[in-house]
């Protein structure tokens, strides 16, 4: 079997197109422009790259982008004051604080200081609780992007065996909740899982969110399974810096039914879903109907 390549880059462009259309209508009919504030603390080069492309794409879909860059040694109190200001700024509909934060900061405390209605990452405990109980919430962007690609590829996910590798609060756990919501039988694997290859072999859907370059091998994959590779790992190969996923692409693509590439898979969908969430937050804040097909 040669896997179908799930083109996240193209899908993301389509999602951004829907967002841009809706934003244009909001402006025309209501004079409202959605605004996204992105806060970056410190100078991590990878984070700077993401923040730049988020800002660029925000403007491209017609939204306002507000970037706040704080130095790595900023006191936590100053960050909390900034979040308070953004919470109370009616031009700001979405707030994203880029993670990870410097070590002297308490990530849970900072995230939970964001107004849950503006928490476009979906990391606030209120949104986590709403998602876990099947209530309307802000859904984390990376898992939402994965879900959109899976629904697009399969139609219904009902009854499928899904394995999520990784149990982080930002990817693995919310991904598992979304798959459960679509009636998959969900297994969450992690570093203490016994015989991971054997667990993965049972899955119709594999979502890899581990942070270990090319760990998932082709001979772990059931023939015809769908493989979603969330991993973003920068490694050196033949003297060059390259980006690889958590899945060994070549061997997995030889057995899978469908697979997302890295780059060009989950990453672009994550940013498209951030814009979708910002639009959703703006519509909710103004009591207007939400865009269709852009939420879980
Ligand atoms: N494309 C995108 O938009 C995004 C990509 N990412 C990428 O996704 C990956 C995961 O990110 P994140 O969830 O934040 O990572 P974390 O480091 O927070 O979590 C990694 C998870 O993988 C598990 N794990 C580690 N080693 C193994 C192993 N050998 N076998 C099985 N499980 C293992 C850990 O288990 P345990 O809990 O037991 O330690 C943990 O649950 C990274 O490559 C990251 O860069 C992240 C966010 C967005
Ligand atoms: N509060 C917060 N929210 C996040 O959503 C968040 C975060 N912090 N911290 C870091 C991770 C990582 N992340 C990515 C987003 C896009 C790509 C992306 O677009 N990747 C491109 C390649 C980009 C490149 O070449 O480096 C691709 O996969 O094709 C990757 C990774 C969001 N994250
Ligand atoms: Mg983490």
Molecular structure report:
The protein is an alpha/beta fold and 296 residues long. The chain has two domains: 31-118, Leucine Dehydrogenase, chain A, domain 1 (Rossmann fold, 3-Layer(aba) Sandwich), CATH 3.40.50.10860; 141-268, Rossmann fold (3-Layer(aba) Sandwich). It has ten helices and eleven strands. The strands form three sheets. It has a six-stranded parallel sheet. Strands 3-2-4 form a three-stranded parallel sheet, with helices on both faces. The longest helix has 23 residues, at 8-30. It is globular and about 50 Å long. The model has no long low-confidence stretch (mean pLDDT 97). Bound molecules: NADPH dihydro-nicotinamide-adenine-dinucleotide phosphate (NDP), 5,10-Methenyltetrahydrofolate and magnesium ion. The site of 5,10-Methenyltetrahydrofolate has 18 residues, from α2, β4, α6 and α10.
Please state roughly what percent of the residues sit in beta strands, choosing from under 5%, 5-15%, 15-25%, 25-35%, 35-45% or over 45%: 15-25%
Question: How many individual domains?
Answer: 2
Q: From the alpha-carbon coordinates, what is the Rg to the nearest angstrom?
A: 19 Å
**Helix/strand class:** alpha/beta
Strand order of the largest sheet: 1-11-8-7-5-6
Order of helices and strands: EHEHEHEHHHEHEHEEEEHEH
Give the overall form: globular
Can you count the helices? 10
The count of strands amounts to: 11
Mean pLDDT: 97
InterPro entries: Aminoacid_DH-like_N_sf (IPR046346), NAD(P)-bd_dom_sf (IPR036291), THF_DH/CycHdrlase (IPR000672), THF_DH/CycHdrlase_cat_dom (IPR020630), THF_DH/CycHdrlase_CS (IPR020867), THF_DH/CycHdrlase_NAD-bd_dom (IPR020631)
EC number: 1.5.1.5, 3.5.4.9
Organism: Ruegeria sediminis
Keywords: Amino-acid biosynthesis, Histidine biosynthesis, Hydrolase, Methionine biosynthesis, Multifunctional enzyme, NADP, One-carbon metabolism, Oxidoreductase, Purine biosynthesis
């Amino acid at each position: 079997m040669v896997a179908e390549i799930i083109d996240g880059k193209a899908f993301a462009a389509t999602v951004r197109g829907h967002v841009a259309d809706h934003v244009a209508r909001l402006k025309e009919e209501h004079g409202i422009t959605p605004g996204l504030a992105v806060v970056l603390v410190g100078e991590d080069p990878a984070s700077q790259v993401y923040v730049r492309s988020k800002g660029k794409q925000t403007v491209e879909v017609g939204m306002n982008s507000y970037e706040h860059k704080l130095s790595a040694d900023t006191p936590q109190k100053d960050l909390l004051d900034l979040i308070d200001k953004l919470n109370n700024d009616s031009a700001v509909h979405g707030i994203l604080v880029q993670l990870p934060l410097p070590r002297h900061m308490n990530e849970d405390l900072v995230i939970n200081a964001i107004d849950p209605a503006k928490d476009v990452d979906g990391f606030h405990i209120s949104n986590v609780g709403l998602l876990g109980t099947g209530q309307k919430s802000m859904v984390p962007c990376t898992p939402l992007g994965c879900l959109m690609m899976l629904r697009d590829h399969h139609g219904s996910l009902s009854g499928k065996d899904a394995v999520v590798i990784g149990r982080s609060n930002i990817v693995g756990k919310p991904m598992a909740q979304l798959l459960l919501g679509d009636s998959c039988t969900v297994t969450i694997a992690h570093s203490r899982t016994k015989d991971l290859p054997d667990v993965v072999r049972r899955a119709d859907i594999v979502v890899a969110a581990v942070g270990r370059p090319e760990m998932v091998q082709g001979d772990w994959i059931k023939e015809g399974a769908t493989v979603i590779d969330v991993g973003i790992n920068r490694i050196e190969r033949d003297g060059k810096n390259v980006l690889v996923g958590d899945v060994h692409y070549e061997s997995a693509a030889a057995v899978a039914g469908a697979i997302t590439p890295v780059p060009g898979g989950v990453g672009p969908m994550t940013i498209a879903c951030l814009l979708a969430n910002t639009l959703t937050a703006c519509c909710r804040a103004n009591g207007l109907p939400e865009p269709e097909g852009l939420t879980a």
